[in-house]
Structures are given as C-alpha cells and as structure tokens.
C-alpha cells in the first residue's frame, strides 16, 4: 500500500494536479499503481479512460471509477480521441513503449506522465514534435518526493486518510500456504488476475481471500 499508494499520490498531485472535469488516460489501469490512480483521479472528479489487457481487468477498472475501458488490441488512440472529442488532458504511461501513442491521445496543451517501462524502453522523442499542440512529457519517480522524514509522514498521513475516507481501497488479497507456492505462481501468471498474493505459514489459509 505504501509504495504503490505514494506513487499514485504524487502522480495525481505533483506530476500533474488532477482537477474535477479533467480527462485522464491511465495505462495498466488494473495494476497496483493504475488501480489507485484510477480511484484517486475519479475521487477528484476526473473522467478516467482506462487501458487494461483483459476483459476482466477492464471491468475491474470500471468498478474503480473509469468511465470507459479499452484493450491494447484495439485502436485505443482513435477510440479515446473519438470519445473525448479533443483528447485527454493527462496520459499516465507506465508501459514505456507506448509513449508515442499516449502523446497521440493528448489534447492541445496536454501532458504525458511517464513513470515506468513495463512494456519496453520508451522511444526517443524529438522535442520539435511537442511544439505542435504545445504538448509536454513529464518524468515521474517517487523518490524525488520523499526527501525527508517530515515529507514522508505528511504524504503517508494523506494516503491513509484517503483510505479511511473510502476514496481509495485495498486490493483484493489471496492467501496461500507456503506449501502451495506452485499454485500461487500459476495464479500470478494468469493475465486475468488482479490483486495481491500473500504466503501464510498456516495451512488452513489456503486460497483464503
């Protein structure tokens, strides 16, 4: 909760200050950070357009507050531009290799925030390409914002206040006994799985969630 929650927090508060009415694209929306960014942005009144790899994950993104969800196999750039009319205000990209597509979803003056490369190294971008449409790319890294104990405490307090108030939720948790490690890995490899896996030393906790 701390690592992914604080990451999602700086993305919607510091990289770009998401506001009510903003149109926001979130890649890997059913993942740990993506799920929380979806909830946080939605709680601020933003319209979230989610990308996720499977139908089950897209449905989860909708349950987390997304107004629409698309698959990577679709022409999601065209679909999002058609749905929004002018493009999104912010595109959060943790995939990396899709950076050019994220830029293509932006409205004039929009910003792409890149904070990962799960799908590969981002392509090189000619700054002159950003001039047309006055678009921008912002890099994101959590450790930029955790410079002191005081700063960490303030951010953690805000994070757990959001959890207490219901603006964000804990992920679905599945518990396996240590002896069922193989089963846990099979579930982890299932592309439909979204949540967290915990190992327990108690055999009776098998598949408890």
Short description:
The chain is of the alpha/beta class.
Which key features would you list for this structure?
two-stranded parallel ribbon, alpha/beta, 209 residues, 6-stranded parallel sheet, 8 helices, Rossmann fold
> What is the tally of beta strands?
8
Give the CATH superfamily of the largest domain: NAD(P)-binding Rossmann-like Domain
CATH topological fold name of the largest domain: Rossmann fold
Helix content: 25-40%
CATH class of the largest domain: Alpha Beta
Total domains: 2
Major sheet description: 6 strands, parallel
Anisotropy-based shape: globular
Radius of gyration from the alpha-carbon trace, in angstroms: 18 Å
Strand content: 15-25%
Please list the strands of the largest sheet in the order they lie side by side.
Answer: 3-2-1-4-5-6
Unreliable spans are none
Q: N-to-C SSE series?
A: HEHEHEHEHEHEHEHE
Helix/strand structural class: alpha/beta
CATH architecture of the largest domain: 3-Layer(aba) Sandwich
């Amino acid at each position: 909760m701390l690592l992914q929650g604080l990451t999602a927090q700086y993305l919607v508060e510091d990289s770009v200050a998401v506001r009510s009415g903003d149109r926001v694209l979130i890649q890997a929306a059913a993942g740990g950070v993506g799920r929380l960014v979806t909830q946080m942005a939605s709680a601020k009144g933003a319209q979230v357009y989610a990308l996720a790899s499977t139908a089950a994950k897209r449905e989860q993104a909708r349950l987390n507050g997304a107004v629409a969800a698309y698959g990577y196999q679709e022409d999601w750039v065209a679909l999002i531009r058609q749905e929004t009319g002018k493009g999104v205000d912010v595109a959060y990209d943790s995939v990396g290799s899709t950076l050019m597509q994220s830029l293509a979803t932006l409205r004039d003056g929009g910003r792409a925030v890149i904070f990962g490369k799960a799908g590969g190294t981002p392509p090189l971008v000619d700054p002159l390409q950003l001039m047309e449409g006055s678009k921008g790319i912002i890099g994101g890294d959590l450790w930029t914002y955790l410079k002191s104990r005081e700063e960490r405490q303030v951010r953690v307090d805000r994070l757990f206040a959001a959890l207490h108030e219901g603006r964000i939720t804990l992920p679905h948790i599945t518990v396996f006994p240590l002896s069922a490690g193989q089963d846990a890995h099979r579930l982890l490899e299932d592309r439909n799985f979204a949540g967290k896996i915990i190992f327990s030393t108690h055999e009776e906790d098998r598949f408890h969630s």
